[in-house]
Amino acid sequence: MAAAGLILAGAMLVCAQDAPLDQHSSIGIDLPSDSPVALLKTDVGEIRPTQRGGALIVDLHMALTLRNSSAHHIRGVTLLVLAQEVTPGGKASVAVPSLDVAPGQAFSVRVDLRLLKPLQTGSGPLVKVSLDGVLFENFDFYGPNRLNSRRSMTAWEMEAERDRRHFKTVLAAAGPEGLRHAILESLARQAERPRIDVRVSRGGRAVAAATAPDRMVRFAFLRLPDSPVEPMEGWAEISGNEAREPRIEVRNRSPRPVRYVEIGWLVRDRQGREFLAGSVPAAENDMFLPPGETGRVLQDTALRFSRNAGEPVAIESMTGFVSQVEFADGKVWVPNRTSIENARLLGVLAPSPEEQRLTDMYRTRGINALIEELRKF
Amino acid sequence: MIKHPSEATLALFTGGELGRFARWRVGHHVEECDDCRRQVAGFAKLREEVRDAGEVPELDWNRLAVEMKANIRLGLEAGECVSRRSLPRAVFSLRALAACTSLAALLVVSLLLEQPTPRVEKVNAPDATVIEAASDGIQLKQGEQTLILKNGSARDVNYLATGDTMRARYVDADTGQVTINNVYVP
Questions:
Q1: A182 Cα to chain B: minimum distance (Å)
Q2: The predicted structure's pLDDT at residue A263
Q3: Are B176 and B99 in the same domain?
């Protein structure tokens, strides 16, 4: 009798878990009252959790339609996504750079999430979405900037200006055929760019391989002539396919104080293949580099590299280059196109968001749509 | 009079290292003999302890083996020196010989159980937080709890690890907009 009761209770629990969740109580969307973007519509598909073992899987598909309620063109938006009940302290964000949203115009941002959480559910919303920042065409910024989205979006916009200028120059000099040739070259580079899978961990090594003892490996540096910051020396602890605690000493050779530096990180395997492994950013709020001074860029995370679905990439050597600098006044430096080409980085680096968008536009809509797009601004 | 197997044989029997016939013969004896059964149980317990000791990730078995061999050689050489000084015969009593044999057997069994080859050990802290690129997005895993920020129907995704952040960049097939997803390690 008691067993039957238990089975019935279990069945009721499963039924309750399979029932769709209420959209309004599951998702919280928070835009400040003075926000330059207004929420027009939220499309959320049915949220139907499914049980797997002792956990619930919840898929959330959201499309937020926002309207530019400011007087300026919007170039980028970043939304902060929190699921505190599932990953306490964990944060996520969805950013849309390379926009050109005129005042009054609407645009949409999609957020697709999958959450795996214990059966016991709390009472609060599963996911909270809020605005972290909006970047305008004149580089003005609005938002709480909890994720430093101001710097990221400014850097993306500077890269966008750089790459639009490059393709406009090609168009002006060589016409539509020249532009087509440049875009096809970019698409070929993107297809051939060596990829590597990276796993980031904190709170312990990812793997320690007794076959490959720890060793300190020194960074070689690519020096970009126009970089305001110069890398001096750097090291990382390497064990097989894992790199830990990279630390790089840099010197500010510009006349302006610097508050953030990011070092691009290339790794070479034993076969001589070179991959973009990631970047080493300065710790937030931890750097102020007056002109002529040196400082350190370091991270306490461990990165493990693999390719082809798990095949470890044993690290033979590493190369670094300055990929981003933020000055104390909020201005951002990114490498120019010539420096990237001269340093033979073009084939290793991912294209900028704008180059990715423009080449995708050529692929899906053709050369005329691309030319029209380049003539917009 | 019952003839008991030697300690070395019992140790090898415990580790499953004897041949089929010897294993049957010793097994038959162990079933009948309380003393030998106790010794086998002792060896089995020791084996468990050795296996547990093997979980220490930084233990260098090659170095340990070399050190043990060097110590044994040193001990033998020292023994030779001492023997030249005509030590009393009691030093080489049967009891001492049995103790040495036991020690040697333990050494052999230990080395057999723990192959002196380096092993790959997972040493993840149990509560370590990991971010990685999953098949359809970026996955943040904290113990049993997981958040995946998905890439939608993206065709070509660029992933980048930036410090404690994993970034996925793609062109949204529906809107044509570049979308950049970030997941941050807490």
A1: 19
A2: 94
A3: no
Q: Using 50 as the pLDDT threshold, list the residues of chain B that sit under it.
A: 1, 53-59, 81-82, 84-91, 115-124
Q: Which of A51, A43, A49 is nearest to A21 (CA)?
A: A49
What does the angle CA A245 – CA A246 – CA A249 come to, to the nearest 5 degrees? 130
| The residue to which tokens 């296996």 are assigned | B51
Residues across chain B:
186
Q: Which residues of A touch B152 (CB under 8 A)?
A: 110, 112
From A254, A267, A280, select the one nearest A332 (Cα to Cα): A254
R_g (Cα) of chain A, nearest Å: 24
Q: Please indicate if any CB of chain A lies within 8 Å of the CB of B134.
A: no
Q: What does DSSP assign to residue A255?
A: S
CATH number for A2-147 (one of 2.20.25, 2.60.40, 3.40.50, 1.10.10): it is 2.60.40
**Beta partners for A215?**
A238
Total domains present in chain B: 2
Report how far residue A55's alpha carbon sits from residue A43's, in angstroms, rounded to the nearest whole number: 26
What does the block give as tokens for A181?
Answer: 């040739």
CA distance B63 to chain A (A): 12
Query: By C-alpha distance, which of A250, A164, A202 is closest to B130?
Result: A202
In CATH, A197-349 is 2.60.40: yes
Chain A: closest CA distance from residue B181 (Å): 5
Residue A321 CB neighbour total at 10 angstroms: 23
Of B57, B125, B137, the CB nearest to A203: B125
What end-to-end distance do the CA atoms of chain A give, in Å? 75
Residues B36 and B98 in one domain: yes
Note whether B159 contacts A: Cβ–Cβ < 8 A: yes
Residues in chain A: 377
The answer on B108 and B79 residing in a single domain is yes
Yes or no: say if A74 and A135 are a contact pair by the CB < 8 Å rule: yes
A199-254 residue pLDDT tens: 888 754 444 444 455 789 999 999 999 999 999 999 999 988 899 889 999 999 99
Long-range contacts, A2-7 (Cβ 8 Å, 24+): none
Q: Which domain holds residue B46?
A: 7-113
This prediction has a pTM of: 0.73
b/e burial code for range A105-131 (CB count within 10 A of at least 16 → b): eebbbbbbbbbbbeeeeeeebbbbbbb
Contacts of A147 in chain B (CB under 8 A): 182, 184
